[in-house]
Write a structure and sequence with these properties.
The structure holds 2 protein chains of 2 kinds. Chain A contains 24 helices and 21 strands. In chain A, strands 2, 3, 4, 5 and 8 form a 5-stranded mixed β-sheet that branches. Chain A has a 5-stranded antiparallel β-sheet with strand order 10-9-21-20-19, sandwiched between helices. In chain A, strands 1-6-7 form a 3-stranded antiparallel β-sheet. Chain A is of the alpha+beta class. In chain A, helix 15 runs antiparallel to helix 22. Helices cover about 75% and strands about 0% of the residues of chain B. The longest helix of chain B has about 55 residues. Chain B is rod-shaped and about 110 Å long. The chains are: A alpha+beta, B mainly alpha. The interface between A and B is medium-sized, with 31 and 26 residues. Chain B: This is Cell division protein FtsL. Chain B: One of its GO terms (biological process) is cell division. Chain B: Essential cell division protein. May link together the upstream cell division proteins, which are predominantly cytoplasmic, with the downstream cell division proteins, which are predominantly periplasmic. Chain B: Part of a complex composed of FtsB, FtsL and FtsQ.
Chain lengths: ~600, ~90
C-alpha cells in the first residue's frame, strides 16, 4: 500500500492543471512585489522609445540631405558624355584632321607598389618607356599620376588586361592629320586636351570644339545603367569645317616649293594659290614645315606660317600697282615713253638705279624689264596721297580679315611723312612691307577686272562681291603687260607654262636685318593664269636663296610655272595657247633691285 | 458582402502590384537594350571616323604619287604628249 499513494497524487495534480486555475487565483499574483519595480521598467521602456523617436526625427529631419546624398552616391553615377571635335576636310571632303578616341593611362602610385615586377615590366614595354622611367613616374606622393596620354585603344586594352591594381584609364581624344607636313600650316594642330593651338584649328576653335554633356543614372550591381534620374544634358559634337584648300593643288604646291627650296638652298619658302573667281585659298604651303602627328621636336622656324606672318619688302612685285594707278588716272598710257638712261637717278641725296641701262622705255616696257627708274619717274608724277590710297585699297598695311590667326598687317607709312626719295623707292616696293598672302590678295585686282575680293580659307558657295579699285580697261592693260614679263624679253621667261598664257611679276629685294639692308635676298614671283580668263593667282616667295642666282625670275619663276601647269591640269582648265615649246633665253634679263 | 468586396479589392491590389513589378522589370530591360544600342551606335560612329581617316591616309597624294611612279612606272603628262579635242556645241 505504501507504494500507491504517490501515483494517485501525481494523477490528481495533472487533473487540476488541465482544468486550469482561475486567473485571480493564480499563485503568482499572490506574490507581492514593490511597486517601484514596475515603474522603473515602464520608465526605461518609455525612454527607449523616446530615444528611438528622437533618433528617427534627427535622421529624417536634420540630416536627411546628407543621408540622401550618401545614398545616391552609392547607386547613382554622373556620366560624362564626351563630344567629338569636328573634322576638318578639304573642299572635296577629304579628311585633313579627325579626332579618334584614345585612352590616357593613369595610376594611383600607392596601389601599384605591390604589383608584381614582371607585370610592371610588361606595362613599361606597352607604354613604350623604360622600367626606370616608369618607376620614376610611380615614385610620387600624389595619388594621381598620368603614365602616358593618348595611348591608342589596342594598347590600352592590353594594359587593362594585365590587371594591375591601381592602373586606370580615362577616355580622351587624339587628333590625327593624315596629310601630315603637307597641310601642317593651314590646318594647324591641337594639344592633348583637343584644343586648337595653331592654324585653322585655332582660328575655328569655337565651332570645331564640341560641348560635353552629362547624365545622372542609376547603375545596378553589374554596372549596367538601369535608369536616368535627371534629364540628360545632350553632348553637342563640334561642327565639321570644310576648308577652301584643294588637297591635290596643295600637294603640287608643297612638292614644287620643297624642290625649289632644296635646289636654291633657300632658308625658307612660302607659296599660296588663290582662286581668282571666288577668293578661296586653294593651297598654302611653307617650308620648313613639321609633322603635326609627331610634335616632339618643334622649332619656331618650323611652326612659322611665313605666308601670313612674315612681312618682307616685296620689291618689284609692287610696280604694277604704281603703273596701274598712273594708267587709271590717265596720267600715262601703255605707250608713254620715259627715259631711263643712264640707269642711274639721283633724288635728293640718294641715288637709285637699274641693273641694266635700258634707254627710253614705254610704260609697258618698264614693267617688262622691271625698271626702277621708269617706275620711280611715273610715281613722282603722282601725289603721295593717291599712291598711299592705292596701296591701302588693295589691302597693304591693313589688318587682314582672313579668319586665320596670326595674319599680320604689314607696314605702309602714312603718306604725309613720305619724302620724294621714299615715294620713289616705295613705287618699286622698297620701304614698305607686306606678307605674301597680302600680295596675292592685291593681285586679284589684275586677275579679276579691277575689283578686290576678300580671301577665304573656308569653302565659298556664292561668288563674293568685289570692291572696285581700278577700271576694267586698266586691269586688261595691266594683264597684257604682266604677260610680257614671262615672254623671252622679260625678267621671268622661266615662268612660262606650256599650253597656257600666263603673266606675273618678279620681285627681288634685299632683306633688312637690324634696320639695315644686308646682302641677303627675298625672291618672289606673283603670277596669274591663264591670261585669257584668269583662274589662279599664285604667289611664291623664297627666303635667302644661296645656290647662285637670287633673282625672282630664276628662283621663284620655275616654281610658279610647274605649280601652274599641274594645278590648271588638276582643275581641268582648257589650254589657251598652242605654244608647247618654251624658249628661255640663255641669259635672261636680271631685274633691278 | 463586405467580405467578398474586400477579397476582390485585395485581389486587384495584388494584381496591380504584380503588374507594376512586371512593368518596372520591362522598363529596365528595354532601357538596358537602348543603352546597348546607343553604345553600338557610338562605336559605329567611331569606326566611321576611323575608316574616313584610313581612307585619307591611304588616299593621300604623296602616297598615290609614290605608288604611281615607283610601282606602276607612270610619268606625269606634259602638253607635248597631250592631244586636246574640242567638242563643238550643236
Amino acid at each position: 500500500m505504501t507504494r500507491m499513494p504517490p501515483r494517485t497524487n501525481v494523477a490528481g495534480g495533472r487533473v487540476a492543471a488541465s482544468r486550469g486555475v482561475a486567473f485571480s487565483a493564480s499563485p503568482v499574483l499572490q506574490v507581492k512585489m514593490p511597486a517601484w519595480r514596475s515603474r522603473v521598467v515602464l520608465f526605461v521602456l518609455f525612454m527607449a522609445f523616446l530615444t528611438l523617436a528622437g533618433r528617427a526625427l534627427w535622421l529624417q529631419g536634420m540630416s536627411t540631405d546628407f543621408l540622401q546624398k550618401q545614398g545616391a552616391s552609392r547607386y547613382a553615377r554622373t556620366l560624362e558624355l564626351p563630344a567629338t571635335r569636328g573634322k576638318i576636310t578639304d573642299r572635296n571632303g577629304q579628311v585633313l584632321a579627325s579626332s579618334v578616341p584614345v585612352k590616357a593611362i593613369w595610376a594611383i602610385p600607392d596601389d601599384v607598389q605591390e604589383a608584381p615586377k614582371d607585370k610592371l615590366r610588361e606595362l613599361a614595354k606597352l607604354l613604350g618607356m623604360s622600367d626606370a622611367e616608369l618607376r620614376k613616374k610611380l615614385d610620387s606622393d600624389r595619388n594621381f599620376v598620368y603614365l602616358k596620354r593618348q595611348v591608342e585603344q589596342d594598347t590600352a586594352d592590353k594594359i587593362v588586361k594585365l590587371g594591375i591594381a591601381g592602373i586606370e584609364t580615362r577616355k580622351e581624344y587624339k587628333r590625327f592629320y593624315p596629310e601630315g607636313e603637307v597641310m601642317a600650316h593651314v590646318v594647324g594642330f591641337t594639344n592633348v586636351e583637343d584644343t586648337g593651338q595653331d592654324g585653322m584649328e585655332l582660328g575655328s576653335q569655337k565651332t570645331l570644339a564640341g560641348v560635353t554633356g552629362s547624365r545622372r543614372v542609376i547603375k545596378d550591381r553589374l554596372g549596367r545603367i538601369v535608369e536616368d534620374i535627371e534629364a540628360v544634358r545632350e553632348p553637342h559634337d563640334g561642327k565639321d569645317l570644310t576648308l577652301s584648300i584643294d588637297s591635290k593643288i596643295q600637294y603640287i604646291a608643297f612638292t614644287q616649293l620643297k624642290e625649289a627650296v632644296e635646289k636654291n638652298k633657300a632658308k625658307a619658302g612660302g607659296i599660296i594659290v588663290v582662286d581668282a573667281r571666288t577668293g578661296e585659298v586653294l593651297a598654302l604651303a611653307n617650308l620648313p614645315t613639321y609633322n603635326p602627328n609627331d610634335r616632339s621636336v618643334l622649332t619656331g622656324a618650323q611652326l612659322r606660317n611665313r605666308v601670313l606672318t612674315d612681312t618682307f619688302e616685296p620689291g618689284s612685285t609692287l610696280k604694277p600697282f604704281t603703273v596701274a594707278l598712273a594708267l587709271d588716272t590717265h596720267r600715262v598710257t601703255p605707250s608713254t615713253v620715259f627715259q631711263t638712261s643712264p640707269g642711274k637717278m639721283t633724288i635728293g641725296t640718294a641715288t637709285i638705279g637699274d641693273s641694266h641701262a635700258h634707254g627710253p622705255l614705254t610704260v609697258a616696257q618698264i614693267i617688262e624689264k622691271s625698271s626702277n627708274i621708269g617706275t620711280a619717274k611715273i610715281a613722282l608724277e603722282m601725289p603721295a596721297q593717291e599712291m598711299w590710297e592705292m596701296f591701302t585699297n588693295v589691302g597693304l598695311g591693313q589688318q587682314p580679315k582672313f579668319g586665320f590667326p596670326g595674319a599680320v598687317a604689314g607696314r605702309v607709312r602714312p603718306y604725309k611723312a613720305w619724302r620724294p626719295i621714299e615715294q620713289a623707292t616705295m613705287s618699286y616696293g622698297h620701304g614698305i612691307s607686306v606678307s605674301l598672302i597680302q600680295l596675292a590678295h592685291a593681285y586679284t585686282i589684275f586677275a579679276r577686272n579691277g575689283d578686290l575680293i576678300p580671301l577665304s580659307f573656308t569653302k565659298v558657295n556664292d561668288s563674293p562681291i568685289g570692291q572696285r579699285v581700278i577700271s576694267e580697261n586698266t586691269a586688261l592693260q595691266m594683264r597684257r603687260m604682266l604677260e610680257t614679263v614671262v615672254a623671252p624679253g622679260g625678267t621671268a621667261p622661266q615662268a612660262q607654262v606650256p599650253g597656257y598664257r600666263v603673266g606675273g611679276k618678279t620681285g627681288t629685294a634685299y632683306k633688312i636685318e637690324g634696320g639695315k639692308y644686308v646682302k641677303k635676298y627675298v625672291s618672289s614671283f606673283v603670277g596669274i593664269a591663264p591670261m585669257s580668263d584668269p583662274r589662279l593667282i599664285i604667289a611664291v616667295m623664297l627666303d635667302e636663296p644661296s645656290a647662285g642666282s637670287h633673282f625672282g625670275g630664276t628662283v621663284a619663276g620655275p616654281v610658279f610655272a610647274s605649280v601652274t601647269a599641274n594645278a590648271l591640269r588638276a582643275l581641268n582648265v582648257a589650254p589657251d595657247s598652242s605654244v608647247t615649246n618654251i624658249i628661255i633665253p640663255k641669259d635672261a634679263l636680271e631685274e633691278s633691285m | 458582402m463586405t467580405g467578398r468586396l474586400s477579397f476582390v479589392v485585395t485581389a486587384m491590389l495584388v494584381l496591380c502590384a504584380l503588374s507594376l513589378v512586371n512593368a518596372q522589370y520591362q522598363a529596365r530591360r528595354l532601357f538596358i537594350e537602348l543603352e546597348r544600342a546607343q553604345s553600338a551606335a557610338r562605336q559605329l560612329d567611331i569606326d566611321w571616323a576611323q575608316l574616313q581617316l584610313d581612307q585619307s591616309t591611304l588616299g593621300k597624294n604623296s602616297r598615290i604619287e609614290a605608288l604611281a611612279r615607283r610601282d606602276l612606272n607612270m610619268v606625269s603628262l606634259t602638253p607635248e604628249r597631250t592631244q586636246y579635242l574640242t567638242v563643238r556645241d550643236k
